[in-house]
Write a structure and sequence with these properties.
Structural class: mainly alpha
Distance between the termini: 40 Å
Number of helices: 13
Number of strands: 4
Strand order of the largest sheet: 1-2
Shape: globular
Mean pLDDT: 89
Strand content: under 5%
Number of domains: 1
Radius of gyration: 19 Å
Low-confidence stretches: 279-286, 290-295
């Protein structure tokens, strides 16, 4: 790629991403046959381009521009992490997929490229919000976390996960999200990986709030794209099912903030162990790398 093309790409790749989102959403609204099956996966790659571009314009550095290798490693990790929740959902059926292609290969391909976007989409959103420093001045009283307290949190999280396995139903299903959140936030703290608990120990909430709002931004876009898509997911939740944000019952939607914290904590844990195997990361190693370096 020559210099002129590189400069054009740097200036416009986010606008290309935004155009992809707009076109795919339009195919859903207009009910464009065949194309509206692919709204969610294609639009999310446009979303990733757009938010990476926003971050690059603010910091002159971003995931795609500085370390595309990490982005491509993120994709299979994202599939793996989300499939953990898909396996749980086979037991409690809180969501189901409809309108999928009849061809099994196409269906599995659609699942793969869709699940692959979950992690990078939240990660890119988080990076952009961090660049805005919206919550840098938020302070709280310092918290202390003893080893025994952390182990109890991990144990309690495992109990919640176990309940959903032993007594699977649409009523117990939501507990799995709290379970993994407790396990990985506390576990990361114990092994020295960045954790929102260490931030709270320092009397700050910057990373926690940034991750939290990243989840809501992504959640809103997920549900907006899903609402118009032909191939989509619908929910089977017993708690206030008729009060919805698009297809998502409102109580489920409120969980998107904690889901972002949970999912990126799981990613940081995976990256820590990949790093121990000798893989080096040149751009962003953790969702809270600055905090990790200060430790």
């Amino acid at each position: 790629m020559n210099r002129r093309m590189k400069n054009f790409w740097k200036k416009s790749y986010g606008l290309i991403g935004l155009a992809i989102i707009f076109i795919m959403e339009l195919t859903g609204i207009l009910r464009v046959r065949y194309a509206n099956i692919w709204i969610t996966p294609i639009a999310w790659y446009g979303y990733i381009l757009f938010f990476d571009w926003l971050t690059f314009r603010r910091k002159n550095a971003s995931l795609l521009m500085n370390n595309p290798k990490e982005f491509f490693i993120m994709l299979p990790i994202s599939i793996f992490l989300w499939c953990i929740f898909e396996l749980h959902n086979l037991l409690f059926h809180n969501w189901v997929y409809i309108g999928l292609p009849k061809n099994k290969f196409l269906t599995n391909f659609a699942f793969a490229i869709s699940f692959a976007t979950i992690l990078p989409a939240m990660y890119e959103t988080n990076e952009f919000l961090k660049s805005l420093r919206l919550f840098a001045s938020v302070k709280i009283s310092r918290q202390t976390y003893s080893r025994s307290r952390l182990l109890m949190e991990i144990l309690f999280g495992l109990v919640l996960i176990l309940i959903t396995v032993i007594f699977p139903s649409v009523y117990t299903g939501p507990l799995v999200w709290f379970g993994y959140l407790l396990v990985f936030v506390a576990l990361n703290y114990l092994i020295g990986v960045p954790s929102i608990l260490r931030e709270r120990q320092e009397g700050r909430l910057t990373d926690m709030l940034t991750l939290f709002f990243s989840g809501y931004i992504c959640g809103f876009v997920w549900e907006a794209l899903n609402f118009w898509a032909a191939a989509k997911w619908i929910y089977q939740m017993p708690y206030f099912p008729h009060i919805k944000v698009f297809e998502m019952p409102v109580l489920g939607f409120l969980g998107f903030g904690s889901f972002a914290i949970e999912f990126l904590a799981m990613y940081d844990f995976v990256k820590f162990w990949i790093g121990k195997k000798g893989v080096k990361w040149s751009y962003i190693s953790f969702s809270m790398e600055k905090q990790f370096r200060k430790k």
